[in-house]
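Technical note accompanying the year-one report. For the benefit of new consortium partners, we illustrate the data format agreed upon in the data management plan: each record pairs a sequence with a structure-token string. No post-processing was applied to the example shown here.
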Amino acid sequence: MPIPSILERRLSLPVIGAPLFIVSGPDLVIAQCKAGIVGSFPALNARPESMLDEWLSRITSELAAYDKANPERPSAPFAVNQIVHKSNPRLQHDLALCEKYKVPIVITSLGAREDVNRAVHSWGGIVFHDVIHQNFAHKAVDKGADGLILVAAGAGGHAGTLSPFAFVAETRQWFDGPIILSGAIATGRAILAARILGADLAYVGSAFIATTEAHASDAYKQTVASCAADDIVYTNFFTGVPGNYLKPSISAAGMDPDHLPVADPSKMDFGAAVGKDQAKAWKDIWGCGQGIGSVHAVVPAAERVMQLKKENDEACNQM
């Protein structure tokens, strides 16, 4: 299966660290890239918007210095996640900064945009678009996305309901480009399984919440390390788009996680996520995927990558 040239000989594992809203920032991204996996963050995590320039400057300069000092083992490239839904008022500003720093990979979410894809291609970047079903996948490719992130059942945050077995198999019937599989991937064995199914890369998110570099509260990290799949609830209540969240955080906010109202999808507004009130809500309600039953401690990101690689190597040797 194809691997984009930008990733060749740059990865210690075929993994992209998923962009985690609120949680991912320069510390985590730089640690992931130095450990040999793609590190990523949502542009909207940088608040106020002027902070995005500072983040991109730091990430590019620190990774360039690392590569100069380690020419035999350069860092993996990094990615920025852009919400391209019309309710995001920062898109053009944030995209211009991605162009300024020649961001190598842009991950687009919530709507495929030809103009965005053309802009990224103009500076030599590539676009991966996340999708939850085939209709969105076809639209993304038709509009110029280079690869697809298949967000299957069990993924943290906004997630779909399709089995990864069905999703990858059906996508491979018509798409021969890069496929990244998302959904409860938190072990080296799961990374191998994604590859066996036909994906090129695994999308690992929730396992990196429980790392020292993650911009998450200690309570959030410890909850991830102590919970399992049964502690995840799937609801559209918080954004209008269905997603997976930690039940303890919902209970702590005074709500019953088993009896949440259904939100009106037409009222979703991701632009509001940059506001103070919404930021506080997201800080208190914790997104998370079903794979966390394999995460038992808060460790440095490099240690988590090393553990995933060890597990993956062992699983490969048993094949």
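Partners are asked to follow this layout when depositing records. The longest strand covers residues 78-83.
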